[in-house]
Write a structure and sequence with these properties.
The complex is a heterodimer of chains A (327) and B (260). Chain A contains eleven helices and 14 strands. By secondary structure, chain A is α/β, with parallel strands linked by helices. In chain A, helix 6 links the parallel strand 7 and strand 8. Chain A is elongated. Chain B has one domain. The chains are: A alpha/beta (327), B mainly alpha (260). Chains A and B meet through helix 2 and helix 3 of A and helix 1 and helix 5 of B. The structure holds adenosine-5'-triphosphate and magnesium ion (MG). The site of magnesium ion has 4 residues of chain A, from helix 1.
Chain lengths: 327, 260
Amino acid sequence: MDGIVVEGLRKRYGAVQALDGVGFRVHAGELFGLLGPNGAGKSTTVKVLATLTTPDAGRAEVAGHDVVAEANAVRRAIGYVPQSSGVDRDATGRENLMLQGRIQDVGGRALEARVGELLDLLGLTDAAERVVRGYSGGMKRRLDVALGLVHRPQVLFLDEPTTGLDPEARASMWEELERLAEGEALTILLTTHYMEEADQLADRLAIVSLGRVVVEGTPEELKRSLRGEAVEVELSDGRAADAEGVVAALEDVLEASSEGRKLRSRVASGARAIPSILSALEARGIGVEAVTSHRPSLDDVYLHYTGREFAAEDEAGAREDDSAAER
Amino acid sequence: MTIAVRHTWFMVGRQLRNLMREPIWIALLLVQPMVWLLLYGQLFKRVTNLPGGGFGTSSYITFLAPAIVIMNSFFGATWSGMAMISDLDRDVLPRFLATPVSRISLVVSQIVRSALIAVVQGVIILVVSLALGVRVHTGLFGWVVILAAAALMNSAFAGLSQGIALLVRKEATMIAIANFIGLPLFFLSSTLISIRQVPHWMQIAAKFNPVNWGVIAARQVVLRGTEWGSVGLHLALLFGLSVATAAFATWTFRAYQRTI
Ligand SMILES: Nc1ncnc2c1ncn2[C@@H]1O[C@H](COP(=O)(O)OP(=O)(O)OP(=O)(O)O)[C@@H](O)[C@H]1O
Ligand SMILES: [Mg+2]
């Protein structure tokens, strides 16, 4: 059975085409990751699935219910953890949870027990009677997750649950999410900017760019889909753009990109390409600090699928500015 | 319907619980109405002696007290949208909107909360004025009418305030609009002075001023010679206005939802 079905979703905000035909499927019980650059349409997709907004075109089902025609059935079946926390900061953690349970039609003893259980599960028991205003970022985020779970939903949406958390808080959030994914028969849709997060947690994932899914699969499949090896060159000065041009032109190099003093390239064979990269750079007088090579990681997959799109997006942005200026 | 009522109750509970945690807010809630009563009571003490009269009593405080209940309720209502803006700013509403919560309860609970506070303050004002020697001519039923007028006055303008909050979604703009609407309506009413003492054009304008409808209804039951027809008419007008502004607020809520 499918936990989430998304087909050809389109949504426009003024001049911005936020969703341009997004489509993917998430099997019941799966943890599915949604990756993509800022503005790619991840949150908008989640907002459509959580019934906050309606699409201009396309169709989506969550837990077997259509998000537009059966919005209330969807709302009962889902938990939603928005990108920016929606907790009531003037209320205590427990009050927040109790209210959330009541409007989800859980009540009485069952609710009290469930709230106690969630506070325990997410390590908030000691802070339960404190006003949320005084919580740390990590505590607030864990409360957000607890709010999404009060009514034992079938599907949980997590929009960047670990953004802004310190490494320790992030690791503990991952543990909790792993536990959740294993335990109850819960389908989870998670958006993130952290590749390791997607790699470690997601059963499958989709990379979104410009409102469309550019690739979908298990982390392993995606990594394998990139042939060859990833070679990273650390330059001793900042001529990365120069270096990128030089290296991209080499025969052994499949693609190259640069960021700061780092030059990333994907090559068919490291043994053959590394010497030619180094000699080409030397010929141009570009100094090299270090060279490493490894199997393509999810980072490389991400860059491969969004890199070109990034540039295209910038151009589109520039065109929009121009036309705005004309007006 | 019963779900809407239940959810409204939950949401009112949330707001009141949060407010009850603010000691300064509670202190002002209790003290402010008394300040109005004592301040204006002293300031205009002698106006009942003005030629032309029209006060219906020689005790200015008796004339003033019911109108202060209304005025206090009115000002509270004009500011009630601030709580909605704070919920919008903190993304509390989107979280609720992803649940089956009754949409209307999110708006109506703000109005009910505001009206409840106005009624509590109304009781305080009436108790203090009782101590100052004000006697409500129609007795306990008169108190009920005054508080009902205060609640209706509050709902009418709280609905408007919520609607404006949902349209502008910005505190600074909300404050400017509340001042722009609030002060003129207050001064164009007979809150502080008999309507017979003001220029003719103001007397006409006051007829269309909802604040004055509330003042008329509340004051009639305090003074002798209560005209029940007029009391009922003005309460009915306030009720009609409350329904209209609540509908306006619900409509603006839908408009807000379309921007998410
Ligand atoms: N409520 C809205 N009103 C107007 N424009 C919006 C709204 N929500 C999103 N957008 C626009 O739609 C596009 C997609 O936004 P979205 O929030 O879905 O991106 P995202 O992938 O979640 O990005 P991020 O990683 O930064 O969270 C952006 O250009 C954004 O400015
Ligand atoms: Mg987002």
